Amino acid sequence: MKRECAYSSFELGKTVVNIKEPQAAVGAIIGIIWQGPAQYTFGFRGALMAAKRPVVAKKKIAGRKRASLRPTAPPQGVVSPAEIDLGPEQPAVLDPSFLLTKFNGGKTRHQYQANAIIFAQGETADAVFYIESGKVKITVLSKQGREAVVAILPKASFFGEGSLAGQPLRMATASTVEPSIIVRVEKRTIADQLHREPEFAERFLAYVLSRDIRMEADLVDHLFNSSEKRLARLLLLLANFGHESRPLPIVANMSQETLAEMIGTTRSRVSYFLNRFRDLGFIDYDSGGMHVHSSLVSVVLHD
After folding, report:
1. How far apart are the first and last CA of the chain?
2. Please, what sign has the CA dihedral across residues 29, 30, 33, 36?
């Protein structure tokens, strides 16, 4: 029996998106994510949050002390990502690997070495990609020749979905950070699946919505937080902080220039903050890369 969508439509700014037309809905959402109008982005998040849980007023706690930057004993419970503005964690229903099982054909699996280009800015956008293992860096090159790092995507992420919104050419370059296995799914294959399978369409739409919320959180962090907090938040995200089922892994060796590009500061400032984090016991290094400790969250919580 085919599963019915939980809701039929929602408002996107002044536009009502009909879930019963899945391909059109996914295309509209992906287009807005890439174009980034603020009036849609914030209204969009509110629509999703309202659909998922009721609004509960937070009670003020009198005499609450500010968090110290000194290392403390590990907390008994795991701090949720929402409490430190890392962006919401994806529920089990959004498991991207489930979406891949729906394709009988039209997909190929490729192995890439580190720093290999998967697709380049300006190439034809005719497929969507999935990271089976490894990490992928998304970069944009300006007309003046300046390169900016847009995101570092971990395992179990989709990218290149702009092709579903009618993008004729790639707006960014995707390259591997480490040896990776990437699955390429033809655009036509996903489009047909969106038409035929309501359950697939609902889950893929939910995945795209969660990416929009994460991008909104990144924008707010970039606009309102200091460069030190932005770096701490980035390291926690790269270390999968907040995923209760996964331990904090080693962050692969990544240049300070790349970290600086991602948080919008200089390499010298990144070097200063990394040394400070190490002196305070929040991070340490070995031959495998950087270990991020959960105590680094105190930098993000500190006022």
Report:
1. 52
2. negative
Beta bridge partners of 111: 181
Residue 60 lies in a domain: no
What is the residue range of 232's domain?
Answer: 226-301
Domain with 244 in it: what CATH number?
A: 1.10.10.10
Residue 250 in contact with residue 290, Cβ under 8 Å? Answer: yes
Q: Are residues 118 and 130 in the same domain?
A: yes
Q: Where are the extended beta strands (E) located within 218-264?
A: 250-251
Query: Phi and psi of 112, rounded to 5°?
Result: -125, 145
Q: What share of the chain in percent tops pLDDT 70?
A: 64
Instruction: Tell me the whole-structure pTM to 2 decimals.
Output: 0.61
Specify the 3-state DSSP secondary structure of 74. Answer: coil
Domain count, the chain: 3
Max CA separation in the chain (angstroms):
60
Q: Which residues fall within 8 angstroms of residue 127, CB to CB, at 6 or more apart?
A: 160, 163, 184, 185, 186, 187
User: Each residue of 148-171: pLDDT tens digit?
Assistant: 888 888 888 889 988 888 889 999
Q: What is the pLDDT of residue 170?
A: 94
